Amino acid sequence: MSFRDNPFGEVRLPLLLGAAAAAVVALLVAFALLMTDRRQTYQAGATSALRRASDQVVAPVTGALATPVRWIGGVGQGISGYFFAVSENRRLKSELAVARTWREKAVTLEDENARYRALLGLTLDPPAPMVTARTVSESRGPFANTRLINAGAERGVKVGHPVLTENGLAGRVIGVTPGVSRMLMLTDAASRTPVMIQRTRARAILTGDGGWAPELSYLRGRDAAKEGDLVLTSGDGGVLPRGLAVGRVVRGADGGWRVRLATDAAPIDYVRIVMFEDFVKLEDLRALSRPSPPPPPTPVPALPVQKPKPDQAKPTQARPTQAKPTQARPTEARSTQARPTQARPDPARPDPARPDPAKPAPPPAAQPAPAREPAA
Questions:
Q1: Is the domain of 71 the same as that of 137?
Q2: Angle 246-247-252 (CA atoms, 0-180°, nearest 5)?
Q3: Residue 231, helix vs strand vs coil
Q4: Are 250 and 260 in contact (CB under 8 A)?
């Protein structure tokens, strides 16, 4: 086919006319924009009017020219999104998995921080030192319920210390070793805890039986308890502090009163061990039973000595001494008699005059008394 047989040859003239018209419009728009950018102050009114007119003409034209560009951009984004949708989906899924992991960690840390704040906010009256620890294992049976805590004798933990959670009393320490201690739960069959009803101040013994709700034993009084009453430690016996939250009173299946423990509201993992000493152990019973020493004697005040006055002094008179006659006692002259000397017997020869020790000695003969001479 030759160029003259081109079917588009008939539209060549309208295209040229359209191009010329577009060029004229472009020149007019450029002139209008040039005129609107003038800064002469004496023609401010004419310039503002011309700018408003040009804006009214240019706005629809630029909008019509920008519409195909927007359409083309949207088509390109749609095509690229279609081809890259799979890779984009994989990337978003991986980011979502990471975000979920961080969300779980954030929730866990928030819960731990809340429980730590609750544990640190525990106060006792009177104040007592505490040790924060964590339960590491649990020993559960039909009637036994104990747990191990990662705090032992090196941190000052002793047998009998109460163990608390952020909600209330969980149990007490029954065994201590270096690094680990064993806690007896309130639900254990060997657990006995003195408690009281806050509303009526009625005393009772919280007895564990291996179930979820320990029994209130030895509860005395008329209408001493009703469902929903708060149960606290009574402090009787000095074993536990007074006023620790234990739980709420509920009616058991057997018709008796039981206690729903406050520690059931959250897991028992973070605990605080109260360094509470038994009042009986703190007192020296021998010293208390020992009689008190008598009080010291009260000193008697000395009476003042009154000295006689010079004018009241009486003169002393000398009494005459009377000489008594001395009488001479008669002296008795004793006659001196010479004692005969006796010769010592020879031990080798027997003395016939010496009496035999086996024979009884004869009675001594009476000797006459010596004669006394009359006194001169």
A1: no
A2: 125
A3: strand
A4: yes
| pTM (2 d.p.) | 0.49
149 and 77 within one domain? no
* Per-residue confidence (pLDDT) for residue 298, from 0 to 100: 78
Specify whether the CB–CB gap between 149 and 271 falls below 8 A. Answer: yes
* Percentage above 70 pLDDT, the chain: 64
Q: How far apart are the first and last CA of the chain?
A: 219
Strands (E), the chain: 130-140, 145-149, 162-164, 169-177, 180-185, 192-197, 203-207, 215-217, 230-233, 245-251, 257-261, 270-274
- Binned at pLDDT 50, 70 and 90, residue 181 comes out as very high
Structure tokens at 233: 């430690």
Q: For residue 39, give its domain range.
A: 9-82
pLDDT tier at 166 (50, 70, 90 boundaries)?
confident
Domain contains 28 = yes
184 and 276 inside one domain: yes
The pLDDT value recorded for residue 129 is 87
pLDDT higher than 50, residue 124: yes
Angle 151-154-160 (CA atoms, 0-180°, nearest 5)? Answer: 60
User: Tokens representing 288?
Assistant: 């208390």
Number of domains in the chain: 2
Q: CA dihedral defined by 268, 272, 275, 277, rounded to 10 degrees?
A: -30
Whole-angstrom CA distances from 127 to 47, 84, 94, 132, 242 are 86, 66, 52, 16, 12
List the structure tokens of 313.
């002094």
Residues 149, 181 contacting (CB under 8 angstroms): yes
Tens of pLDDT, residue by residue over 312-350, are 545 555 555 555 555 545 444 444 444 544 545 554 455
Map tokens 């191009």 to a residue: 19
The pLDDT tens digits for 216-230 are 999 988 889 999 999
Mean pLDDT of 282-290: 59
Q: Residue 68: what are its φ and ψ, rounded to 5°? A: -60, -35
